[in-house]
Amino acid sequence: MEFPSKLIENAVGELSRLPGIGRKTALRLALHLLKAEMDTTASLAEALAKMRFEITYCNTCHSISDAEECGICANKLRDHSLVCVVSDVRDVIAIENTGQYKGVYHVLGGVISPIEGIGPSDLHIDSLVARASGEDSEVREVILAISPTMEGDTTAFYLSRRLRDLPNVHISTIARGIPMGGELEYADEITLGRSIVDRLRQA
Question: Residue 121 in contact with residue 102, Cβ under 8 Å?
C-alpha cells in the first residue's frame, strides 16, 4: 500500500497494531482524523495518553481504577460478602452490564496456562485467599465466574482447592448458561445475568 505522506503511513502503521484493525480500516481512521477538527484529534490523543499513563489498579480487587480503590470496592451499598472472581477486567464490565449482580469482584489478571508459561504465582490468587481468610474479612461466598475453557476450568479447580478449607466461605460457580469454550465478554447480557443468578454452589 502506497501512501502520499510518511506521516499518514506511520499513523496507519500504529492504528493497524490494534486488535481487529487491518491496514485498510486503519487508513480510513487516519484519514477521518486528518479531516476532523483539530480539537477532535487533540482530544482523542489526550484521552488515550491519560488513559495509558494515569489509570491504576485497585488495591483490593485489581480492577482498573482512577484511584487506589475502584468505585465498586468503595461503594458501601455493594454486598462485600459476595466476591465474584473473574479472569479479566472485560469480564467485570460484561457482568456489570447485566445489572443483576450487586456484590464485588476480584480480577485474577488471566488464567493458568502452562503452554503460555502462566502459573498460579503469576495471577492475583494469593491476594484472593488473603482477602477471604483475613480476621476482619466480610467474605461469605466466592463465585468463580471464569470462562469455561480448558484453562478456565483448570484455574477454577485450583481456586476451589485453595479456598475449600476456609471456614464460613462458600464456593460457587456460575451456571452453565455460558457455552463450553465460550468467553464471558461475548455472552449476551440475559444469559450472563441468569448464569450469575443461578450459580451453582459447590460443596
Answer: no
